[in-house]
Amino acid sequence: MTSSDGPARGTTSVDHRAAIAVETARFVAAVENADATTPVPGCPDWTLQDLVRHTGSVQRWFSVLLHARVQEPPRTRDVDLRLPERWEGYADWLAESATVAAEAFAATDPELSMWAWGVDQHARFWARRMLYETLLHRVDAEVALGIRPAIDPALAADGIDEFLVNLPFATPFAPGVARLRAPDRTIRFHATDTDEGGDWLVRLRPDGFGLDPAGTANGPADATVRGTAADLLLLVYGRLRRDAEGVAHEGDEGLLDLWFDNSAF
Asked: Which of 58, 86, 87, 258 has the smallest CB count inside 10 Å?
């Protein structure tokens, strides 16, 4: 499979480490007085308790990888989660998970070479990945609780880039990604509310797919999807349908079917 050559195609002003703390605090505020059994539409078959446990577990597992400076895929995901026995302690536990992550970040140079499942083989991969895992599930929790979520456009744009640049490597846990191939067909994602870095051209080839380098995605695409950066972020993650209000699309519908049927994880 092909991919871009770095962790992002352009520069970003997002402080991933700091944003994790902010997103976790928002998550905690949403769930601290909520019903643990609340179903989560964005994660079918999960309750709010499942969602909180998953998010805090991911933060703690990534932190273990950072402390270990892993140089190859880990053989186990066993982590001492220190989960509370009762739901009433889960909000504080999630907040503590972000503290565990902050301690791992403070002890790790983001430029340190490390194994990662995505394109960027440095410690900074894990902070960026943890941020969007946390943000997406914060949104999942808010939607489940009837809260209208808000996502900063710059954060959303960076999240779209993070998703698309790493997607070619996601087949171990998203096997449908292997079906994202076509004879040189292109899909453009265009964010309507960002001044820079809001345009992505995905090129599908017979051997895989990848992003064209930033600044070279000129000319028409075989299919185009437009919306705010927040809506596009939720769209690529399967939290919005492409016929949702505020999302526009044109071009090869079959190509879009192929993409959306196989890309979300």
From this structure: 86
